[in-house]
Specification:
By secondary structure, the protein is an alpha/beta fold. It is built from twelve helices and ten strands. α2 crosses α3 and α7 runs parallel beside α8.
Length: 277
Amino acid sequence: MAYQEEIWVVKEDGTKEPFRDDKVKNALRRAGLSPKEVKEAIAELHPKLYNGITTNKIYSLTYQMLEEMKPEVSHVYNLKRALMDIGPEGYDFEDFMAKLLSLQGYTTEVRQMISGKCVSHETDILARKGGKTFMIECKFHNQPGTKCRIQTALYVYARYLDLVDGAKLGRCVDITKPWLITNTKFSEDVIAYAECVEMPLLGWRYPFKESLEAMIDKTKCYPISVIKMGNDNLRRLLSKKIITISDIPDSPERLADITGIPLAKSREIIEHAQYAR
């Protein structure tokens, strides 16, 4: 059942809306809970709600319940936040996306300088597949509720046009299409513009059934940030280019030796990584 309007939730952008079960139910179903388990989780959540509760608090409460009920699927529920945690800069997200795309059959190169007609451009990822070459811009956001805006789409397409002209002059490879990827959602203007100029987009819940989270779930290419750990240990892993769950060594001793993370914590990280493999 849904709560009445006296329970108001404060969203990440500061606006308020009445609490509804559906959003939590959908997230739990996506994580892999059965209908019965979803019903049990919602029943446990209801008494903990109060007027003015934040979406972040609801997330934390639900995640804690999920870890207790079914820890082997908690990484799926945690994915959206985990993608934001691989910042604060965008380089780790670029490396993560290069790995993810390689599992989709693309050959990838990160942070390549390419000469256009007017200026040189650093592409976040240059991806090739099936005789096509894509110039990929990875727009990383580390604040919940942030959307990829139209200015980014216009910028990406303008760079692409300069590279098209550069290729005609023999200054760079032929670029088939630009491709804009983000770890959050796209604004409606971005989607409308991208459809008009036929520029591929990939982000949270877009495109339908072939979104970023769907691609990650399909390939099981989860970022290491889906594992609950302190920020210091996460930074140590990322600094050693351990970006995805599959990058984590099987040996706790090896992980501790590479990263300097204490052996006990290394064992814990590897134990949790088994759920996401």
